[in-house]
Amino acid sequence: GIQSVKEIHDRDGNYVDKTPLIDGILGEDLTMVHLFTRPRRFGKSTNLSMLDAYLNIRYRGNTWFDGLRISDLRPDDPEKNAYPVIYLDMKEMTSRSFDVFLEKTRSVISEVCKSFPEMVDSDIQDPDDVTVFLELKAQRSNIGTLQRSLATVSKMLHRQFDRKPIILIDEYDGPLNTAYGEPDHRDIMDFTRELLSSALKGNDHLRLGVVTGVMQIAKESIFSGLNNLEVNNILSKDMDEMFGFTSAEVEEMCRDFGHPEMFDVAKDWYDGYRFGDNDIYNPWSVLNFVNKDFKPAPYWAGTSGNSIIDRLLAIDGTDTYANLVALGSGGTVESDIGPGVTYADIGDSESGIYNVLAFSGYLTAVPEGSRYLLRIPNREMYGVFADQIVARLGTSGMSGTMRDLSRALLSNDVLSVTSCLRDLFERVISSRVLDSEHSYQTFIAGLLMNLF
Hints:
Layout: H1 5-10, H2 20-26, E1 33-37, H3 44-55, H4 69-73, E2 85-89, H5 98-114, H6 127-137, H7 143-147, H8 149-161, E3 166-170, H9 174-179, H10 185-200, E4 208-213, E5 216-217, E6 229-232, H11 247-256, H12 263-270, E7 273-275, E8 278-280, H13 283-291, H14 307-313, H15 318-328, E9 333-335, E10 340-341, H16 350-359, E11 364-368, E12 371-375, H17 379-392, H18 399-410, H19 414-427, H20 437-449
Parallel strand pairs: 1-4, 1-6, 2-3, 3-4, 5-10
Antiparallel strand pairs: 7-8, 9-12, 11-12
Helix pairs in contact: 5-6, 6-8, 8-10, 14-16, 14-17, 15-20, 17-20, 18-19
């Protein structure tokens, strides 16, 4: 759970070297704003912390990067610890209510302002800007001032340090995802658009912006007109190793912690993602796997709700059931995958939901011609799909019977299979969910996923 590179270094933690990301970002001279989208718990916050540690003028003279790959890529780098940095964590602003969202935003922006105390008594700042700055710091600003807060602070930092600042924004879509489907969703969307646009679009006081999120929200004008935005997502081939762990990194970690023989277990449970041209392991699950004495478990699956799978199950149709059966048996589903999604995509469109499932880490998308083959990536995710399917069909409290069914299937015990299935069918809470052959197929697919 430690995301700070500084703290990892100070506590002598094990750090998987992702510092070439710094060179990849700074080397893009014509790109002012980078948007990185990856599933949750795939290292976005740690990588932003790494950028902050490397670029922030507050940390000048640190030795945190000695021996890491960036030291060879950028020796004697004049940009190292050369800039004031605005760091905004939008996870702290999530709410279903617009009023609570504003209250949380004021608090987060206030903390940003408190990190630059030198600007209050500075004799080189415009007095009007100082007045606005103090309002933001005291959490007394109106909505318009709050929307322009990052632009205001960046202008003051440019004047104070004679260096254009860097803006790092983590989980920009957190508030949007939390408020999706709620009455205040549109208000939160509109506010977020203005906050980000004023900071990242046409801001003459910005050196560089780096934004992270789970998905690229398209057609909602969040980044409308931002022509200097470079989007890097799960389909991008550049910097594709910088989020998540590679096979070599996981193998080295197992060896470093004394259990090289457990690499195959890690591969079975947590491998299977495809970012760009690289196979990637789920880093959160691997770290927990190693930390908990190499005990495999669905660590990533328990860090958030998995209701998106239930949305897929709610779509009625022959193709949906056939695709679930294919996925559950280790097969693939062919679909179009696009880099940008809308909130309408999370509604009733099967292809739209596959899009969201791929970008949020539930499915792996492998290019096949002009389309993509989708599959469940690993054993951990088979369990997630199985739990969602079984839970939706009302079979809670039947884990013992399902274990018996798995043993009977593996031992070719036909009579026991028949008995277990009859028991499960009879105990389903509502017989109406088993009113068609498609429902039976989904039910069986969910049960069989438990075999993985």
